[in-house]
Amino acid sequence: MAGHSEKEIKAIFDAFDTDGSGEISRRELVNALLQLYKGDDQKAKAVAYNVLKETDFDMNGKVSWNEFKNALA
Ligand SMILES: [Ca+2]
Ligand SMILES: [Ca+2]
């Protein structure tokens, strides 16, 4: 993504990866989006679905650092 250094992208990734596992699970994604959309469960789940569809290249239901970086790069 233009204007975003790898360090900035990593900071966003780490904010989503709340258990520090190195991957963003669907649950972590939904939890983060729930805060963003102020508890709007339907919206959070719909956005999480779209984000995973666009970033989860190996379709294991989690976004790895490489997948996240490639998606934003
Ligand atoms: Ca995680
Ligand atoms: Ca994946």
UniProtKB/TrEMBL annotation:
Q: Which Gene3D superfamilies match?
A: EF-hand
Q: Which InterPro entries match?
A: EF-hand-dom_pair, EF_Hand_1_Ca_BS, EF_hand_dom
Q: What would be an example GO MF term here?
A: calcium ion binding
List UniProt keywords, sorted A-Z: Calcium
Residues forming the EF-hand domain are 4-39, 43-73
Q: Which Pfam families match?
A: EF-hand_7
Recorded protein name is: EF-hand domain-containing protein
Q: Source species, please? A: Paralvinella palmiformis
